[in-house]
Amino acid sequence: MPTIRIDQPTVGQTPQSLGLNLSWTKTEQEAITRTLAKYPQDRQRSAVIPLLHIAQRKCNEWLPVDAMQLVADTLDLPYIRVYEVASFYTMFNLKPVGKHHVQVCTNCACLIRGSDAIVSEVKSHTGLTASGETSKDGEFTFTEVECLGACVAAPMMQIGTHYYTHLTPEKTREILTHLQNGGDPAKYADTAPTQDADPIHNGKYGQ
Ligand code: FES
User: Fold this and answer.
1) Are residues 105 and 182 in the same domain?
2) 105 and 176, same domain (yes or no)
3) 97-154, pLDDT tens digit by residue?
4) Which of 19, 107, 128, 202 would disulfide-bridge 147, Cβ 3.0–4.6 Å?
């Protein structure tokens, strides 16, 4: 059993207070079984990244300590080994994010295709001024990110599990307004939502 627990920004926010249920649902368990089947029997622990994705999706797109503990327990890993992975990769959030986590790619292809204007539009629409901020009403978190692998459809952003591509400031504003009004995230998106660990490679974009 993992025994190491360490201090981090989520301390004080128990999963219970956040209404989270930290055992796998039947659907999640099925996704985990499918994921683990891709790894050799003696390399099951290598599935830590896909399982962290499943855990993050379960927990409103961030990873409380207990979510990482659940992954550790599932893979029979020490907690610290899971935390090391989760804290290394920027796609894992170790503190709560807004209802809509707006991740705008500002890497080369998107920059050349005008991501500066997209960032400006997101900032002016949400009132957020810096990457990593969350709006007071909890509606939006804005993060500048590196290449998300959809350069062919630059400039682009990811919100939740969806990719939004070929952006213009006008289209960006329309998407954010649509989400703010409770609209279906899939309406403008290029990827289909999925229960599996890796939504990026299950969808299509650039069309
Ligand atoms: S540079 Fe933006 S998706 Fe690759």
Assistant:
1) yes
2) yes
3) 999 999 999 999 999 999 999 999 999 999 999 999 999 888 999 999 999 999 999 9
4) 107
pTM equals 0.78
CA 137 to chain centre: 19
User: Cβ(67) to ligand 1 under 6 A?
Assistant: no
- Do β-strands 100-105 and 162-164 pair in parallel, antiparallel, or remain unpaired? unpaired
Does 110 share its domain with 169? yes
In a domain, 3, yes or no: no
Domain extent, residue 177, equals: 100-187
Tokens coding 174: 């329309």
- How many angstroms is it from 111 CA to the middle of ligand 1? 8
* 112 plus 183 within the same structural domain: yes
Is residue 21's pLDDT more than 70? Answer: no
Q: Which residue has the higher pLDDT, 169 or 207?
A: 169
Tell me, using a 6 A CB cutoff, whether residue 156 lines ligand 1.
Answer: yes
Considering the domain boundaries, does residue 197 fall inside one?
Answer: no
Domain boundary among 88, 110, 127: 88
79, amino acid identity: Y
In a domain, residue 80? The reply is yes
Residue 153 beta carbon below 6 angstroms from any ligand 1 atom: no
Closest ligand 1 atom, residue 115 Cα = 2
- What's the total number of domains in the chain? 2
Please check whether residue 172 is in contact with residue 121, taking contact to mean a CB–CB distance below 8 angstroms.
yes
One-letter amino acid for residue 95 of the chain: K
Q: Is the CB of 85 under 6 A from ligand 1?
A: no
Closest alpha carbon to 145 in 110, 183, 174: 110
The pLDDT of residue 191 is: 66
For ligand 1, the distance from its centroid to the CA atom of residue 17, given in whole angstroms, is 37
